[in-house]
Recover the amino acids of this structure.
């Protein structure tokens, strides 16, 4: 299994679920960044109380242990599919069965992306490519071995699903010998979720596009990340009309440019995956904190615009699994890529997922199948002032 290099924490024990955290939200920077909007949200105090979402956590645990299909994965994006169903889109995924003692067989099939469809009654079905005997990702590897991790899926034209892709290739034989090579875009059949086509997307600057997509009317914002001076920062592109398969423009700090090279960072210390969604009269960004190495902190920022400026971070939760002092008691275990699922929000209660993984990807992930699975938390937000 190829583990993404992200910032999550190996340090102290985490806060227990249900702990209330209150931090004043900083006033938004001046609107010289080009945003014409004003809102009350950025001037208020945001606070949160978080607890484990036992329902989803248990459902994925039961399905992973007994379903005989998907047994673990990361990314954990969600998309409404109609008729009350939700598609859970995963990158690297284990398939097969789990042993009675909770371990994963050493010969478990492993693919680079999959979808788990949850119907309106709570039942799960795993969707892959390939065949039953030789499963492959929904977006299979290229003939030369390059593979795809997925970004946040978005509705496409003609009842299709568009999935931003990050293409990777091996650079050597070692565990960490791989590198990003291109951004691409997959179109899936909206009914079967099988691949229909792949096209190239802008890839000249090294920005990894697809960390998040935000649909507003006929405009879709596409968020990406790049490390600027060692700081993982977010960038924004947008597309109009039929999804994100057409021309993109890029926020350059004062307006929208047709040149990817003009894109500028809009907020620092985000993770590879994060979320931006409308909230009250502004926007809410949720991410794993990357201002500290291997952080357990899940934080939120607010803004009056999808392009920022964003307020200082407010802590929502600390993940309890990480590190030697965490719930696994394992220095190799870490958490990463927290984000909201706005389609499953209820009022001021938001649903946030994060991923759990281990640097021991030849031991821990087979010894304990529960490590490599998403976690879900309910976060009750309060805005005062």
């Amino acid at each position: 299994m190829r583990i993404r290099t992200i910032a999550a924490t190996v340090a102290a024990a985490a806060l227990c679920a249900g702990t209330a955290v209150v931090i004043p939200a900083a006033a938004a920077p001046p609107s010289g960044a080009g945003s014409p909007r004003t809102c009350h949200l950025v001037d208020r105090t945001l606070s949160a109380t978080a607890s484990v979402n036992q329902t989803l956590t248990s459902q994925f645990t039961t399905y992973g242990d007994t379903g005989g299909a998907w047994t673990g994965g990361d990314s954990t994006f969600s998309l409404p599919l109609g008729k009350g169903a939700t598609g859970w889109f995963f990158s690297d995924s284990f398939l097969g069965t789990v042993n009675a003692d909770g371990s994963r067989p050493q010969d478990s099939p492993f693919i680079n992306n999959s979808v788990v469809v949850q119907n309106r009654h709570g039942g799960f079905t795993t969707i892959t490519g390939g065949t039953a005997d030789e499963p492959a990702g929904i977006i299979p590897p290229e003939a030369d071995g390059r593979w795809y991790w997925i970004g946040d899926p978005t509705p496409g034209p003609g009842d299709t699903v568009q999935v931003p892709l990050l293409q990777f290739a091996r650079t050597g034989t070692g565990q960490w010998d791989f590198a990003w090579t291109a951004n691409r875009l997959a179109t899936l059949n909206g009914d079967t979720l099988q691949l229909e086509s792949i096209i190239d997307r802008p890839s000249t600057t090294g920005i990894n596009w697809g960390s998040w997509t935000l649909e507003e009317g006929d405009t879709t914002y596409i968020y990406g990340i790049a490390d600027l001076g060692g700081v993982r920062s977010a960038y924004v592109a947008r597309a109009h009309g039929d999804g994100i398969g057409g021309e993109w423009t890029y926020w350059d700090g004062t307006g929208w440019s047709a040149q990817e090279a003009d894109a500028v960072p809009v907020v620092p210390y985000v993770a590879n995956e994060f979320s931006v969604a409308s909230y009250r009269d502004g926007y809410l960004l949720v991410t794993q904190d990357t201002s500290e190495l291997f952080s357990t902190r899940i934080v939120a920022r607010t803004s009056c615009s999808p392009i920022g400026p964003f307020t200082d971070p407010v802590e929502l939760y600390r993940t309890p699994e990480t590190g030697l002092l965490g719930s696994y008691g394992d220095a190799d275990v870490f958490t990463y890529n927290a984000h909201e699922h706005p389609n499953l929000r209820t009022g001021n209660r938001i649903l946030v997922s994060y991923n759990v993984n281990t640097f021991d990807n030849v031991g821990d992930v087979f010894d304990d199948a529960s490590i490599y699975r998403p976690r879900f938390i309910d976060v009750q937000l309060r805005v005062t002032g």
Remarks:
- The chain has two helices and 29 strands.
- Confidence is low (pLDDT under 50) at residues 1-35.
- The two ends are 47 Å apart (CA to CA).
